[in-house]
Amino acid sequence: MEAGTPELVKLEDLQVGKTFTGRKHILSLLVEDKPGVLARIAGLFSRRGFNIDTLAVGPTDDPDISRITLTLDGAVHPIDQVTKQLHKLVNVIKIRDMEPDATIAREMALFRVQAGVENRADIMQFAEIFKAKIVDVSRRSLTIEVTGSNEKIDAFERMIRPHGLIEMARTGEVAISRSRPDS
């Protein structure tokens, strides 16, 4: 018997009242854009035994500030303690544990897939269904770019893998708060 959950668990199934028993945490950190900041943050998680599921770092509208987006499994790790420790780091300006309902999160992935004459049309049809872009074509393979939710990219991978997945690269999620209805 294989380890793991035999079927997908929906976020709604984990909800008890207004709290979640094991939701994924998306932490958005605004930090000073200085050497060593990412290493100190990663070291803090490592020392506490936390596994970072995804990590994305990039510039913001202010050239002196970077945004780090981390995703963590809230069922495995109580997040309060690590956020208190993050606040103590000198270069950390702001931390937000983003609520899933109030957040837009996207990830980008590149898939290189075997695409001979016999299955090229099927693969191109999958790409069209998932609103993906074919970014490179060779005689024996296609490289496809998929952007969307983590679930969308996982679903695309499941569809494409039987056709001969050669290589895959994923960015990790980036996230931003949804606009309020009144703004």
Shape: elongated
Q: How many DSSP E strands? A: 11
What percentage of residues falls in helices of 4 or more residues?
Answer: 25-40%
N-to-C order of helices and strands: HEEEHEEHEEHEEHEE
The portion of residues forming beta strands comes to: 35-45%
Unreliable residue stretches: 1-11, 13-21
Please give the count of helices: 5
Keywords:
183 residues, four-stranded antiparallel sheet, elongated, single chain, alpha+beta, five-stranded antiparallel sheet
Written description of the protein model:
This protein has helices at residues 11-14, 37-47, 79-88, 120-129, 150-160, and strands at residues 15-16, 19-20, 24-32, 54-59, 65-73, 92-98, 103-114, 133-137, 141-148, 165-170, 174-177. The protein is an alpha+beta fold. The strands form three sheets. Strands 7, 8, 9, 10 and 11 form a five-stranded antiparallel beta sheet that branches. The chain starts with 10 loop residues before the first helix and ends in a 6-residue tail after the last strand.
What's a concise summary of this model?
With 183 residues, the chain is an alpha+beta fold. It has five helices and eleven strands; from the N terminus they run αβββαββαββαββαββ. The strands form three sheets. Strands 7, 8, 9, 10 and 11 form a five-stranded antiparallel beta sheet that branches. The chain has a four-stranded antiparallel beta sheet with strand order 4-5-3-6, with helices on one face.
